[in-house]
Design brief:
By secondary structure, the protein is an alpha+beta fold. The protein folds into three domains: 83 residues, Elongation Factor Tu (Ef-tu), domain 3 (Beta Barrel); 144 residues, 2-Layer Sandwich (Threonyl-tRNA Synthetase, Chain A, domain 2), CATH 3.30.980; 112 residues, Diaminopimelate Epimerase, Chain A, domain 1 (Roll). 36% of the residues lie in helices and 31% in strands. The strands form five sheets. Strands 2-3-7-6-5-8 form a six-stranded antiparallel β-barrel. Strands 16-17-18-20-19 form a five-stranded mixed beta sheet, with helices on both faces. The chain has a four-stranded antiparallel beta sheet with strand order 9-10-15-14. α2 crosses α3 and α6 packs parallel to α7.
Length: 385
């Protein structure tokens, strides 16, 4: 049985050990030590990485009571090695895991929420709670969680006897047998847990709840803690500073400025649509009874191109093909023919002009990578009778 140094001291970064065995595994070489400070994946917490001498530790898992270190190179049994933990990764995971305990414990204490799911990802942490919360409760939860950090009360880790355990109110997702490790953040949480944690709440640094969405009968909360929270808020501030500069708005007034910009944009879109409708109506009148029509109109969106084609189609009495774009950049198209079948034509069009698109038998849309002269020649060779 490997001695679990990480349970004795989560801040142990360097240790000495002996290699008990080394076998070839699926992802490298599986090495078992007599003692280790490497945490194996489990309880929602990812494994540690680092080195054993000159060998890289890629993964760590618990198998049949042994802790297996998957490494990139072998080590001979009986060899004495120095293990070094990737401390930046370990401390980040400790901050996230400890923050999750505090948030889950407070949600349980305040509203009776059970933690029914926990994932510690590379970017953020998610907690699945059994009961729904509203935005005011989410804000309260974040405030209380950070208040716990400010008090900076030491974390208590104990291995109570079965008699003592029966008198303790603690969170656990399953029935436990054998020695139980209790991790307590006084005033916030008491939970059975085998993971690594900070020694006092203040070491979590900061807890930021990012989002909340409905999940089954309850909610899923996304959060970041410690260094991740600092980096997240720094990036958010940087982005808001850019928006502030672009909108010529004060840092806390970017939302109002963005709303104003959207209103102005909506008004411009409405005016543009009115001008387009007038233009399309004039073109429809110009090509009334003209039969087959090929039009090029600059600066149209796919929707505007569709509306132009539809307007002219109903007046020309033939097939209407409308294109918008520029040579070297490609053209969007809309082609319609009342009561016609354009499937063969659109296949030829896409093949001849390096295009893609389709639609209904009598109306198709897409794009081509061709010059205006090539498009004009294509339709000149395919006039309808």
């Amino acid at each position: 049985m490997t001695e679990k140094l990480y349970e004795q001291d989560a801040f142990l970064m360097k240790f000495e050990a002996s290699v008990l065995s080394c076998t070839k595994g699926k992802k490298g070489f599986d090495i078992v030590l007599d003692r280790t400070a490497f945490y194996p994946e489990g309880g929602g917490q990812p494994f540690d990485t680092g080195t054993l001498g000159d060998v890289k530790v890629l993964e760590v898992h618990s198998r049949d009571g042994q802790i297996v270190h998957t490494c990139n190179h072998p080590l001979e049994a009986g060899t004495a090695v120095t293990g070094i933990i990737d401390w930046e990764r370990r401390f980040d995971l400790m901050q996230q895991h400890s923050g999750e305990h505090i948030v889950s414990g407070l949600a349980h204490a305040l509203w009776g929420c059970e933690n029914v799911g926990f994932h510690l990802g590379a970017e953020a942490v998610t907690i699945d709670l059994s009961l729904p919360l509203d935005e005011d409760q989410l804000a309260q939860l974040e405030q209380e969680a950070n208040r716990c950090l400010w008090l900076d009360i030491p974390v208590k880790i104990t291995y109570p006897s079965p008699e003592e355990l029966s008198r303790i109110h603690y969170r656990s997702k399953k029935e436990l047998t054998g020695p139980v490790r209790i991790v307590e953040f006084p005033g916030a949480d008491c939970c059975a847990c085998c993971g690594t944690h900070v020694t006092s709440a203040g070491q979590v640094g900061l807890i930021k709840l990012l989002s909340m969405q409905k999940f089954r009968e309850g909610v899923r909360i996304e959060l970041v803690c410690g260094g991740r929270a600092l980096r997240y808020l720094s990036r958010a501030l940087e982005q808001n500073a850019r928006v502030s500069h672009l909108l010529s708005a004060k840092i806390f007034e970017t939302g109002t400025a963005a709303e104003r910009l959207l209103e102005e944009n909506a008004a411009l879109k409405s005016r543009l649509m009115s001008l387009e409708e007038a233009r399309f109506s004039a073109l429809a009148g110009q090509y009334a009874g003209a039969g087959d029509v090929l039009l090029f109109e600059e600066g149209l969106s796919s929707d505007s191109l569709r509306r132009l084609c539809d307007a002219v189609l109903h007046s020309c009495g033939g097939r209407c093909a409308c294109f918008s774009g520029k040579d070297g950049q490609g053209y969007k198209y809309a082609v319609g023919q009342s009561g016609g079948n354009l499937q063969a034509l659109v296949r030829e069009l896409n093949q001849a002009l390096i295009g893609r698109g389709g639609g209904k038998p009598d109306f198709v849309q897409g794009s081509v990578q061709a010059a205006r002269t090539e498009i004009t020649q294509f339709f000149a060779e395919r006039t309808t009778l």
